[in-house]
Amino acid sequence: MDVVATPLWSSPPCGSPMAGTVSSGNPLFHVGRSYYRSAAKAYNMTRYVVESLKLDETVLATSMAYWHTFVDRLELRKFDEIVLSASCVFLASKVEHYKVRLNRVIALVFEISGEGDEMEGWRRMLLEMELLVCHTLGFNFQIIHPMKRIVELVPEDHTQVLECAHRLFLLSFMTPLCVRVPADEVAEALVYLAADGAGQLEPYAGKFRCDAVERREGIINVMIDALAVMRKNTSLPKVDDMIVARRKRMREQESFRPSVAHSSGGTGSLDVTPSAFLVE
């Protein structure tokens, strides 16, 4: 992709990310709508940095896995979410063997340049947050991503399935699946959803190692919820119909709740999410 999006995010700490759960009855798959929105802002910023610095998408995936791990264990509202995201992408770039200068990350995220007190202040803040992230990870930086299993599962001539599964793989980082479910299980659920949506599920019979239907449906439910909340689609009519139906059900549920004012992470900011990167 030649065009890199300009940064579109706000820096105030967000509220509790787990309010208002949606999805299946399995506690593993309970995700709040505000969680999706906070994760989408982190994703958007992270992808901007990754593309600006011409890094591999593995850095994006690793950074978001760190972000979700941190948020899963600590309360996000206690921390500046942009500082957290910037620290995660800086750490991930080093783990994935890229030589990225911290000042360059700060310049991209906070739109400042040169040296001085402001740059030094951000440097100290990001380095302190990076250390906290390292402690939260237990200094275990290895992340296994689902994409390898996706490539193993999908035949070369199933281009539509592979492209959709790849989109879903990227979008899955707006959910906490990467820290709650094994990577291979996520991969197989994404391939199942893409193949079913493309009407090509039959060739995959017997190929899935993870045969727990309830868990697969839970993963798919989380993805459909995320796509519905973030107003994304897949270009596969069957899957997109599921998203539309889920969005309609969510609107109906909202109509029975008292009206509340949305923060900067509410529906007014949904266009900030990475739809431009993923769906044409």
Automatic annotation (TrEMBL):
<dbReference type="GO" id="GO:0006357">
    <property type="term" value="P:regulation of transcription by RNA polymerase II"/>
</dbReference>
<feature type="domain" description="Cyclin N-terminal">
    <location>
        <begin position="48"/>
        <end position="141"/>
    </location>
</feature>
<dbReference type="GO" id="GO:0016538">
    <property type="term" value="F:cyclin-dependent protein serine/threonine kinase regulator activity"/>
</dbReference>
<protein>
    <submittedName>
        <fullName>Cyclin 9, putative</fullName>
    </submittedName>
</protein>
<dbReference type="InterPro" id="IPR043198">
    <property type="entry name" value="Cyclin/Ssn8"/>
</dbReference>
<dbReference type="Pfam" id="PF00134">
    <property type="entry name" value="Cyclin_N"/>
</dbReference>
<dbReference type="InterPro" id="IPR036915">
    <property type="entry name" value="Cyclin-like_sf"/>
</dbReference>
<feature type="region of interest" description="Disordered">
    <location>
        <begin position="254"/>
        <end position="280"/>
    </location>
</feature>
<dbReference type="InterPro" id="IPR006671">
    <property type="entry name" value="Cyclin_N"/>
</dbReference>
